[in-house]
Structure formats: structure tokens, C-alpha cells
Amino acid sequence: MEFGGISSAYTDYVQSQNTAESKLRQEITGTDYSKATDDELLSACKQFEAYFLEQVFKGMQKTVDCIKTEESSNSGNSLVDYFNDSAIQELASISTETQGLGLAQMLYEQMKRNYGL
């Protein structure tokens, strides 16, 4: 059973996730943080913490997913996966902005020491 446009929307979403990961990686590795302002440095650290939390949440979700049957491989499930991924990404972002793990702050302080800011 194929829903029109759902599989292509999911494919677009996966590509956008890969693009977002590549963009974050390029931003982190391609930036000279010795000349960054405190806000830019803290922002990069928060982005890393949000990405880290997203990966942790996805790993946690895999441990509690119900046993998948042959029926779960249809495109309707792709839509569910799409919304789950979006929800996890948003939860990770909000968690980092509101209370966080403290990882961003520790990274920020370490980078300030390393770059002499």
C-alpha cells in the first residue's frame, strides 16, 4: 500500500537530515574558533549538545520499539518514522536550550581555555 508522496517526503527528510549533519560537521571543523565571539562559540557548543542528545534519544527509542512485523515495512510507517525523528530533534533542541546536560557549557569553557579567549 503506497501513499502518494509519503515515500518521497520521507526520502527528502532523510536527505535533509544528512545535509544538516554535514553542515554542522563542516561548521565545527571549518571554523577558526580562536576568532569567534563568546556567543558564536556557545552556539556551536549548544548545537553539538543538541545533536548528541538527538542521537541518545534515538538510541533509547530503538531499545523500546515494539517488535516490527512484516506489515511495518510499508510506507505508512515511513511517515511515522518521519514524525518521530522530527519530534526527537525538536525535543533535543528544546532540552539543550532550557536545561541541557551541561555538556555545552563544559565544551564552551574548555574551548575558551584552549583558544585563549
Uncertain runs are none
The major β-sheet equals:
none
| Share in helix | over 70%
| Coarse morphology | elongated
Q: Structural class, from secondary structure content?
A: mainly alpha
Would you write up a description of this structure?
By secondary structure, this protein is an all-alpha fold. The protein is built from four helices and no strands. Helix 1 (6-29) packs across helix 2 (38-64), helix 1 packs parallel to helix 3 (75-98) and helix 2 packs across helix 3 (75-98). The longest helix has 27 residues, at 38-64. It is elongated and about 50 Å long. The model has no long low-confidence stretch (mean pLDDT 76).
Summary of the model, kept short:
By secondary structure, the protein is mainly alpha-helical. It contains four helices and no strands. The chain starts with 5 loop residues before the first helix and ends with a helix.
Topology at a glance:
Elements: H1 6-29, H2 38-64, H3 75-98, H4 103-115
Helix pairs in contact: 1-2, 1-3, 2-3, 2-4
List keywords for this structure.
elongated; mainly alpha; 117 residues
